[in-house]
Amino acid sequence: MEIPILNLSLAKDPTTRPQLLKDLYDATFNIGFVYIKNHSVPNFTIDNLTDFLPKLFDLPNSSKSTLSKINSPHFVGYNGYAEEKTLGKQDLREQFDFATELDVVYDENAQVEGGSGRDFSKLYWRLRGPNLWPDEGDLPGFRRVFEEYHDALSKLSFEFVELVEEAFGIPKDTFKDFFVPKQQVSNGQKSKSYLPPQHRIKLLKYPATSNPSGQGVGPHKDSSGWLTFLYQVGTEPGLEVLTKTNTWIPVPPIPGTFVVNFGNAFEAATEGAVRATVHKVKAPVERDRYSIPFFMGLPLDLRVSDIRACMPESVRRKRGEVEGDSKGEEVEISKFLDGRWDCLGESQLRKWIRSHEDVGRKWYVDEACIHVKSLPQRERKLGCPSRHPESFSQKDASPPKPNEMIKLFDLAILHSTKRV
Ligand SMILES: [Fe+2]
């Protein structure tokens, strides 16, 4: 099996558009990964950003430390080499996380907005906020070039989602509400509006290693958004995808293309009919490998049930037909959603805290404790850590262990959304 290459220029001609949509539909259900070529992103926009990557990763340690993710409650910023693990094994890469530049909306004392019912005191709103930018003097022009790339990818992602809607037989602009404020939607009566979501972009470096079985990043599904648009820089291979027959196939770089795949939220929205396909990256042995995944964001207060309501029965029916044999591998991949986490912001917050415990401990423990402390003792015990949560806030207490933190956050999120 090979990953299909879709020629997006076929969308412009009414005589070739149906074939493109059929190929997209088939690829979505068969493998969940596609290459796209002849897309709308100009070459110079890509080249301008990729030219910066070696310089960005060569910044002195003092600059990298200023940009460290530990300095951001929004989980943006720098992570050093092999600081993250997947399935218990070190990922041999370093990375900068950026996002759509947005103001902070989280306010622990917020009152519920009358019309929208939006409550900015919920913990997950703290995920939203501005970037940590490198000093302009260190990398002149970087921010402008990055923002041009961000805007071009944002445009491409909207264009691609329109194709997905048409391919799936979903009414045009159904998903537009999730990305564009209500008043800008042209097709009329909408029951709910969302804040425009925050896209995320990783700038990744996989340094060449002498270990031929090194893990660049371990097997995972994408959790950061709706769809992922990956640009693979240069010619160094490494990306592999798990097929339904439980075999890994390579997805090498092809000049001028992006690789597109579906995230966990899409899988949840289609009740598993469209898979968030498992993939991994082998650490390169000859040359450094760089890549740039763009994760198309979704509103934090969007509920999986809201999206499911948009999915036609024809898509849900596919669920029974796509059961594959790869579950053996998949059982180890952490589940994005369970029954308690209907809201995407809650799932996102848990995901970020799991992968960056130090950031969670620094920026979220106190807030979580405030929610949990106001619970009666009986309810605290329902999902609470073995230690009393108040002890986490005490100066001399040892910090919460990862499992304790997740339990604490689970309870805090449930409480902040009035579900305990
Ligand atoms: Fe990924």
TrEMBL record:
It comes from the Eukaryota. One of its GO terms (molecular function) is oxidoreductase activity. Residues 380-401 are annotated as: Disordered. Transmembrane segments: none annotated. GO terms for biological process: small molecule biosynthetic process. PROSITE patterns: FE2OG_OXY. Residues 197-298 form the Fe2OG dioxygenase domain. InterPro entries: DIOX_N, IPNS-like_FE2OG_OXY, IPNS-like_sf, Iron_ascorbate_oxido_reductase, Oxoglu/Fe-dep_dioxygenase_dom. Keywords: Iron, Metal-binding, Oxidoreductase. Gene3D superfamilies: B-lactam Antibiotic, Isopenicillin N Synthase, Chain. The keyword Oxidoreductase applies. The keyword Cell inner membrane does not apply. Residues 380-390 have a biased composition (Basic and acidic residues). Belongs to the iron/ascorbate-dependent oxidoreductase family. This is Clavaminate synthase-like protein. It comes from Tothia fuscella.
